[in-house]
Structures are given as structure tokens and as C-alpha cells.
Amino acid sequence: MPFDDFVGNGLMVQAVRSQLASGRLPHSILFAGIAGVGKWTLAQYVAKALNCNQRQNDFCNDCTICRRISEDVHPDVKNVAPDGQFIKIDQMRSLSREVFFKPFEGRRRIFIIDEAERFRDESANSILKTLEEPPDTSILILVTSRPNDLLPTIRSRCQTYRFAPLSAEEIARLLQGRASCQPEDRRLLARIACGSLGKALALDAQEYRAQRDEMFSLLEACSRNFLYANALRAASSWLDKRKLVEFEAKTGILFTLLRDLFLLKSGAKANALTHTDTLGRLTPLAAAYSFGQLSKATRSLDHLEAGARRNLNRSLAADQFILSLAGTC
């Protein structure tokens, strides 16, 4: 799968290809962008293009070298991922030694550090000199969805390539190859993926609709004729402490529904909404809520989401969200 098959971010990919062709590709690179937009994939493409023995400044994806890179068994291409929760100092010390080895088989050694935002400070500091002065035979590519979480000293030593989210049309086109994905599912997944092909491929449209219905029930319970008991009942599955993954997914859905309500109240057209297929449920809710209610509820939801990672009392924070949305506080 050569560079021409890479989807999205065409100008940036062309810049990388031009640097490859001219021999001016930086030795320390930072690929930054939302999860699932192709950062790690492009890093693999660069590793193949630098070592493929069939094509110049591109790759065939069929030769022994390309296949071994795909299978993560090529000695000159190292993929580094967090060891547990963090990238640890021992991993970076090992990398800093290996960087100075000459290529075993290929033309260049490539080190791809995934989820680079998960550096501990000591592990990040340990590779500063390596990033600043790598040997000509090695290239380091850091991949991250949260570049601002990296130390400034790391960012300043790398040339940054920022990946833009994919358009809904690009994602829908890519999903056409999935036989099990119906046209209405493709349209839904393309809109809710927020520019991430990885997210679109991971989501199940039927499960998403079921979770969205739950969140709609909560929004409806907090609107006109509000009764706290009804709202709490609607939120019970969302707040189940045994279902952290579902909590995060449903919270994300709530954010997008609140955004759609803001847009509708502002007079936006239906095609600007994420959930265009639910306009019949969104419209009466937009009329029921004020801008003040939606704004306060969004701030409360943001507090709830951030606090969930710090063992915040989820029930109390959810109460604040419910009462803010209902306009009673």
C-alpha cells in the first residue's frame, strides 16, 4: 500500500514525500493529531519507504522488507509502546543505546514511539540529547494524540507534523468496503467519528444507537415537567460504577447531543449537526432548554468527566449536571 493510498492530509503527506526524495527528512519527528487519524500508519510508511528495495522514496508493501516491517520483525524498525501505564526510563535508555547501532539489513534504522504523551518526565529527559543529535543512520518518530502533554524540551527538538481530522465524506467512503455496514450506518459512523477513521472502525452502530437513546431519555427527563426521580432513573445505567467504558462512551455522546442543541438554538442548519438522523427528538429539546441551562450543564459534564479519572464522587457530580440541565441550580 504505497503513499498514494494514504487517506487524508494530502498536503502533509506530500511534504513528507518531498523531504524523503530530497534527503532532507528530519531525524527527530513528531506526528500529532487525534487518535485514529493515521499517525502510526504514516510512521510505518516512512520506515518502509526508507528501506524498501523495490521502490525509491516509496514502498511496494510486498517485498520481504516491507512484509517484515508490517509484522514488526524487522531488526532496523523498532516500535516502542508504553510499558503498562507509562513509557519508562529503562525503555528510553535501551533506545538511546540502539540508536547509535548501524543498520543491520536496511538503509536506515527507524524508532517509532507510540503514545509519546505517556512519557514519565525522567524517561523524556533521558532522550533529549538523542533527539537533538541522532546519528545520520537513525530516525526517531514520536506519535501522540496529546502533543501539549509532552515536555516543551521534547517538542522543541522535533519537527512537528499536525494531522487534521478526516472529513465525514472520506470516512464514509472508506467504510464502503465493509460488507456488514449498511448505508445508514456508514452515514452515522462517519459523522460521530469526529474525523477519526480508527474510531469509526471500532464503533458498532447498533450499540451506539442504544446508548444514544439512553442519553436522549436523560435529556428528556431533565426538560419540561422535571422530576428528579425520573432523571436519576434515566441516568442509572450511565452512572453504574461497574461500567467505566460505557460511562466514558455515553458521556461522549452527551457532549455531542448538547452541542447539537446549542447549534439548533443558534439557528444552525440540520447538516451542521452530528445527529442529523434524530432531528425529530432534538428539535423539541432545543426549544425546552435555555442557552444558560445548556452552558451550565456542559460545564458540569466537563467537571464530571475530568473528575471521573480522579475518583471524584460520580453520583454527586452527576447530581450537579442533572440539576444544572433542569435549571434548578
| Biggest β-sheet description | 5 strands, parallel
Strand content: 5-15%
Task: Give the integer mean of the pLDDT values.
Answer: 90
Overall tally of domains: 2
- Kindly state the percentage of residues in helix: 40-55%
Order of helices and strands: HEHHEHEHHEHEHHHHHHHHH
Structural class: alpha/beta
CATH first level of the largest domain: which class?
Alpha Beta
Radius of gyration: 23 Å
Shape, per Cα inertia axes: elongated
Please outline what is shown here:
With 329 residues, the chain is of the alpha/beta class.
Overview of this structure, please?
This protein has 329 residues and is an alpha/beta fold. 52% of the residues lie in helices and 8% in strands. The protein has helices spanning 10-22, 39-51, 64-70, 89-98, 121-126, 128-132, 152-155, 168-175, 183-192, 197-202, 205-221, 228-235, 244-265, 279-288, 291-308, 314-326, and strands spanning 28-32, 77-80, 109-113, 138-144, 159-162. Strands 2-3-4-1-5 form a 5-stranded parallel beta sheet, covered by helices on one side. α4 (89-98) links the parallel β2 and β3 (109-113). It starts with 9 loop residues before the first helix and ends with a helix.
Descriptors:
single chain, 329 residues, alpha/beta, Rossmann fold, Zinc Finger, Delta Prime, domain 3, elongated
